[in-house]
Sequence to fold (254 residues):
Amino acid sequence: MAYNDTMGSFGRTIRPSVREFEQKEKDRQKRAMERSNAQDLSELESYIHQITGLHHDIIDEIQWAAQTHPDTQQVYQKLRAGDDGTLMKVIKSQQSLSGIHKLGRGLGFSVERGLVHAILALHKPSIVPDFHFKSMPSGKLAEVKMPREKALRIYRTYASSAVLKVASDLLRLVPVGNVVVTAIAPCDVADSRFQEDWPVLSANLLRKSILGMDMPTVAPVVALKAFQHVERFHADHGFGRIVPLMSIPARMSI
Fold:
């Protein structure tokens, strides 16, 4: 009888301790899962923010009028006069325009009667992740396929951001009043299983407006609507082929 009383007392003592340990372990696992969820979400959101916030990166403006060297002043006067050869030479000499791998697959330029036209070959739609996270009843995040409409919206935002970035850089490098930027991307072709690169977005961006924007706070798709632009975008199908604001030279290498 004494033995049973002792074991019963021991059981009454140990069970709360076990329950406390189990609860602490559950809490620990929950915190670990929350940290893992937060990290996964943070990494995905950071990447999407990066590809849709390309225009946030602003380069220093070249103050051509403040340059005192005679040769530089001579170049400046030619730029102001809209000399095609000088504009092209200065644009091609700028190192900041050569590192465009974040923006797209290639970047080319043409100059016609003093008007600069930048042609950007966008990355393919696969630059947008094909998954997102869904919260499960257990609290764990599950990786599920991203809805097509959402992926297309992100790709459109990326394209608009890249166009703004190219215009922003150009207008800070050369003293021109405006630039035209045309983006090309893979489009469906009638009677074909394959896609081909065609212009999908073209905008005429004004110096005063672009330089006056607070780029980190700008929504790129909305911002482009303030300028003369051409775009075909369908929520279910994405970009469609357009006729750009300026013609693209047939032999241009991008």
User: Anything to note?
Assistant: Strands lie at 104-112, 115-122, 131-135, 141-145, 178-188, 195-206, 228-231, 233-234, 238-239. The chain has a mean pLDDT of 85.
